[in-house]
Amino acid sequence: MDFDIVIIGGGLVGASLACALRNSGLRLALIEGQPLPRLDSGWDSRIYAFTPGNVDFLHECGAWQRLDASRIQQVEEMRVFGDTGSRLNFSAYEIGAPELAFILESRLLQHALWQGLETQDNLTLLHPAQCADLTVQEDAARLRLQDGREIRARLVVGADGRDSWVRHQAVMPEAPTPYHQHGVVANFSISKAHRGIAYQWFQPDGILALLPLPGKRISIVWSVSPEQSAELLALTHEAFCARVSEASNHTLGELQVITPPAAFALRVLNLAHLAKPRLALIGDAAHNVHPLSGQGVNLGLRDVRELAKVLSQRGALDCGDISLLRRYEKARQGDIMSMQLTTDTLKNLFVNDNPLLRTLRNAGLDATNRIVPLKKMLVRHALN
C-alpha cells in the first residue's frame, strides 16, 4: 500500500486532520488500533471545551453539523476564584461575542468525524490495526502492521496520544515531566441552574473546574495530589458529591453522580521539535499541558489547522520534506510554549503554601479583574 500521508491515531485530532485534507488531492490512510467508542444515551466522562475558532474549523470539516445540538452546551461566562476571596470574571458579553466556548463529549465528536471519514474518497481506513515497525528512509517512511501488511508513505503523522508510539519510534528523547498531580473527572446532575457559567477555584491543595453541560448537569476536573485522588476515588458517591459541593462553596446546590469518578496523571511535555524528515507530531503526541486551562484539545486542533494549511500550500514540495514540515513546527511553537508557560506558572503559583505568593497571586486576580482591556485581550486570544 502506497500513500502520500499516513495518520496514526483516529481520535479527535487524527480524524480531524484526515477530514481537513479531504480535498487536498493527497492519498491518505488512517490507522486506529482501538474500537470506536459506543454511542448510547449515557454521558461520556471525557468532556472538552472547544474554542469558537476550532468549532468553525470542525464545521468546515463537516463534523459539527452532524452533532446532536441537545448535547452541546455554550459557555457564556467564566468565574475564577482565588483562595482568599479574590476573583476574576470573563464574559462573552463584555467583548460582544455570543459565547466563550462550547462543551461537548469526546465520543460524540469522534463519531461525527468518523461518519465523514467512512465516505471520504481519498482516504483508506485501517481499523482496527496495530503498528509493529516504522523505518524512515530518504524517499519514504515504511510501516509494518502487526498482521504483516506493509505501507509506504511520504509522510507519517503521529496523532496517537500522550504515550505516542510514533514519537517513541522517531527517537524524540524528551521525557514528560510529571506534575505529581492527578486529574479527577466526573459528571453530576445539579439542583441549581448553571446558566452557562464555568467555574474554577484555585486552592492551596488543588484546582477545581466546573464545566456546564446541557440541562442541569456539570462536569468537573479536579487537579489534586495522587494521595488526594486515591482518597476521592475511594469515597462513596454521596461522600464524593459532598466533597465537590464543599470545595465549590455549594454554588450549584445538591449534586448527584452521573458518571463515576476517574483519574489520570498530569504532566507536561515540551519537545524541541515537532517534526523530522517524513514525520510530524500533532495533538497530545506533540505536547502535554496542565488541564487547568482546558486547552489541550484546542492546541491539538490548532496543530491540525496549521499542518493542513502547510500541506495544502506545499506547491511542488514533497509532503514529507523537512523544510515544509519546519514551517508547521515554527508556526506552532509560539502557541504551544505560551500555553505551557501560562498553565505551568498558574499551577506553581497557586498550588503553593508560600504566604508571599499567596498574597501576590490573589492580588493579581483582583487586579486583572479590574483592567477591562487586559481581560478583553485574554478572552479574544482564548477564542481562536
TrEMBL record:
> What residue ranges carry the coiled-coil annotation?
none
Q: Family per UniProt? A: Belongs to the UbiH/COQ6 family.
Q: Which NCBIfam families match?
A: PRK07608.1-3, Ubi-OHases
Q: Which UniProt keywords apply?
A: FAD, Flavoprotein, Monooxygenase, Oxidoreductase
From which organism does this entry originate?
A: Sideroxyarcus emersonii
Pathway annotation: Cofactor biosynthesis; ubiquinone biosynthesis
Q: Which SUPFAM superfamilies match?
A: FAD/NAD(P)-binding domain
One of the protein's GO biological processes? ubiquinone biosynthetic process
| Superkingdom of the organism of origin | Bacteria
Which GO molecular function annotation, any one, does this entry have?
Answer: oxidoreductase activity, acting on paired donors, with incorporation or reduction of molecular oxygen
Residues annotated as transmembrane: none
What the entry lists under Pfam families is as follows: FAD_binding_3
Protein name as catalogued:
2-octaprenylphenol hydroxylase
**The protein's required cofactors:** FAD
Q: Which residues form the FAD-binding domain?
A: 3-333
